[in-house]
């Protein structure tokens, strides 16, 4: 079993686990479940978290260069090791977007657009759920409903930051930091995608202008060549007419000699 083989085998099952995590976590937070329902929800959430932890350990064991792999996947370690951040592990759902890349086209800009839209929706939704979970029961908090959490998340990720709703707990502020970093990264990605699109459009228009100019020059040269050919043809026709007229004149003069009119030359 290789790392790539493991990833190919477990990709869709882990996506299914992530979907279950998302549904259960949303139900538990938005519904504010308590008692036995809360216990069941927590069991399901921990089982999903355990599946991702096992996946991380197996990929680490199967990696060819474990030290390098470990350093490159420190965010995965943090998301697995810190239970308070376990909702963010659902960002693995971005893998689902690979199935829609054909709809987005084969250009890099299409894939970036799909990734940006998907990651933005996922990040806003998950951070809203996490924020509501940690802030709801704090007396000093202003986030007591999912609508208020969504409003806070959009104001934060767009870097607007009205300040009317702010987290007061340590966990809430930590989630806010994650969302702020995500907003900055999103802004940079959108800017890069827009710049790439503008450069591509300028390049296309430049190539079209150069091609149009080349086509115009080619058409002009072709027209000139046709005109030159027509003039040459006219000259050749005129020359042929002159030659025919000279032949006719020469033939007329030859026909008027004494031999042709029946007279005989005088004897000496």
Automatic annotation (TrEMBL):
| GO MF annotation: an example | voltage-gated potassium channel activity
Task: Provide the alphabetized UniProt keywords.
Answer: Ion channel, Ion transport, Membrane, Transmembrane, Transmembrane helix, Transport
Q: Name all Potassium channel domain ranges.
A: 125-199
Where are the residues of the annotated region Disordered? Answer: 210-231, 249-268
Q: Which SUPFAM superfamilies match?
A: Voltage-gated potassium channels
Q: Name one GO cellular component term.
A: voltage-gated potassium channel complex
The alphabetized list of GO BP terms reads: action potential
The UniProt entry, under InterPro entries, shows: K_chnl_dom, VG_K_chnl
Specify the protein name: Two pore domain potassium channel family protein
Instruction: List the source organism.
Output: Nakamurella flava
């Amino acid at each position: 079993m290789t790392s790539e083989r493991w990833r190919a085998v477990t990709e869709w099952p882990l996506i299914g686990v992530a979907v279950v995590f998302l549904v259960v976590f949303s139900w538990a937070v938005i519904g504010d479940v308590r008692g036995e329902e809360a216990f069941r929800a927590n069991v399901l959430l921990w089982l999903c978290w355990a599946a991702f932890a096992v996946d991380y350990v197996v990929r680490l064991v199967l990696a060819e260069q474990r030290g390098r792999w470990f350093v490159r996947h420190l965010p995965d370690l943090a998301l697995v090791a810190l239970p308070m951040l376990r909702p963010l592990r659902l960002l693995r759902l971005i893998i689902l977007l690979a199935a829609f890349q054909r709809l987005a086209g084969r250009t890099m800009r299409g894939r970036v657009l799909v990734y940006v839209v998907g990651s933005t929706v996922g990040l806003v939704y998950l951070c809203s759920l996490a924020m509501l979970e940690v802030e709801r029961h704090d007396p000093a908090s202003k986030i007591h409903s999912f609508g208020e959490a969504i409003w806070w998340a959009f104001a934060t990720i767009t870097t607007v930051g009205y300040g009317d709703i702010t987290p007061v707990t340590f966990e809430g502020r930590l989630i806010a930091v994650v969302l702020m970093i995500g907003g900055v990264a999103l802004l940079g990605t959108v800017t890069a995608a827009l710049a790439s699109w503008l450069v591509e459009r300028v390049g296309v228009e430049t190539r079209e202008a150069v091609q149009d100019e080349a086509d115009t020059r080619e058409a002009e040269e072709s027209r000139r060549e046709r005109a030159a050919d027509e003039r040459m043809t006219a000259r050749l026709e005129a020359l042929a007419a002159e030659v025919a007229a000279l032949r006719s004149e020469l033939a007329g003069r030859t026909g008027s000699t004494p031999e042709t009119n029946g007279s005989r030359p005088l004897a000496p």
